[in-house]
Amino acid sequence: YRSAWRLEEARRALLRTHTTACSARLLHRLAQQAPFAPGRWFSLERVFRNEAVDATHLAEFHQVEGVVAERGLGLGHLLGVLREFFRKMGISQLRFKPAYNPYTEPSVEVFSYHPGLKRWVEVGNSGVFRP
C-alpha cells in the first residue's frame, strides 16, 4: 500500500490465508467440461490469519470447503448438507443467518450454540455459487 514494489518481497513465502483459490480452480475446470458431469469435491486445509486471538478466533485453523455440482440444487439442499456435516461432528444446535459473499447467492453464515461461552458463535459460512 503506497510503498515501493520490490521483487524480493514479492517472492517471500506466505502462509495460506484461505482455500477459496482451490475451489475457484475446480469451478473453472468444471466449466470447461462438456457435457456437464455431476460431482462432489471437498478439501480440508490448514490456514493462517493475523487474528486477535480470543475464545472464538485463532491465528491457525482448518478450513473445510465443499463443492457439490448438480442440476436443480438450491438453498434447501445446502442447508441439509450443512446440518448433516455438523451433526456428524456432534454439533446439533445450528442457526443460519443470511450473509453476503461476492461469489455466492444466496449466502448464509452458520452459528452454533457454545455452552461454555453461553452464546451463539459462527462456525461456518456458505452459499450457492452463481451460474
TrEMBL record:
Name assigned to this protein: phenylalanine--tRNA ligase
One term of GO molecular function: ATP binding
A GO CC term attached to the entry: cytosol
Domain Aminoacyl-transfer RNA synthetases class-II family profile: 38-131
InterPro entries cross-referenced by the UniProt entry: aa-tRNA-synth_II, aa-tRNA-synth_II/BPL/LPL, Phenylalanyl-tRNA_Synthase
Lineage: Eukaryota, Metazoa, Chordata, Craniata, Vertebrata
SUPFAM superfamilies from the UniProt entry: Class II aaRS and biotin synthetases (SSF55681)
Assigned EC number: 6.1.1.20
Keywords linked to the UniProt accession: Aminoacyl-tRNA synthetase, ATP-binding, Ligase, Nucleotide-binding, Protein biosynthesis
Matching Pfam families: tRNA-synt_2d (PF01409)
GO biological process: phenylalanyl-tRNA aminoacylation
Domain of life: Eukaryota
